[in-house]
Amino acid sequence: MKKYLNIKERYSQFKAWREQPHQVAPMSEAEHDCATCGTHFTGNYCPRCGQASRIGRFSFKTGVLNFIDVWGLGNRNMFLTLRDLILRPGYMIRDYLKGMQMAYFPPFKMFFLLAALSLLVTHGLNIKGQNLAGDSESESMAQEVVVEDPSEKDSGVEDVVDIVNTTDEIAKRTKVIYHKAIDSIERFQKRFPNIYNLLLLMVESVFLYLFFRHSPNIPDLRYSEFFVSQVYIVNMVAIYTIVFNFFCLTKLASISFILAIIPLKQLSGFSWGRTVLKSVVALVLMLLSILVFIVLSAFVTVLLVKWLG
Q1: H or E segment at 292?
Q2: What is the pTM assigned to this prediction?
Q3: Where are the domains of the chain?
Q4: DSSP assignment string, 155-208
Q5: Is the pLDDT assigned to residue 33 strictly greater than 60?
């Protein structure tokens, strides 16, 4: 019983720590002479050049920090950001949106770094040295072969073509335009996957924002703020995905997107039930909107081809 109470007390302490805002190190009252510019100052950093007062003789730790700084990991505590994204993601995002930006690693820079690391892990930098992307690439190539079948490719716009009662020549030209547009999108996705994912995230954020713009924790949330929070949430999911893929737990990696509910709940302050419901409704609304857009674009394409002759 005593052990149970001890665990419960520790969890309460952890929960309290997780919800409280980020605490910055207190200002040092010791006096220093900056080794770079010679300025005499009191505090943690030189007010003239910004060098930390704790810098001393070169050590192995200093060498490691200089090495990771080459890859952009030395700016603004990357490890603190990783820790908080794992242990208190929603509350960390809340702190960032409130202005604590110097305490955390920039979200977009982190997005591209994690994307590069994820690529390395899926292509062999894992515990088994396996190319985890091999199966997906094979499936993708198989799908491309299937798409080349005219009977399969024509099915996307046949209904719209029949509705407007076009001739065979107009139908053929419409399908050519339609598939050229799809091919252009696929080429852009393969050439610029990170930009493509950010654009998709921007669209997804619009629908989620409709349901989370007014919440108990942030009643006047802006779309720009919500989009940044979504980038951080994607970074959190990427961290778990990279860890799962590193240990070749591909099934867990494929469902790690479910963890996005945790920061959404912590950031908004809604209950678990309302957070899940709002997220599902937003996802369904987005899928329906995409479907309507595809049908309307095909319909407009048919009409334009028919009108232009």
Answers
A1: helix 272-308
A2: 0.81
A3: 107-309
A4: GGTHHHHHHTT--HHHHHHHHHHHHHHHHHHHHHHHH-HHHHHHHHHHHHHHHH
A5: yes
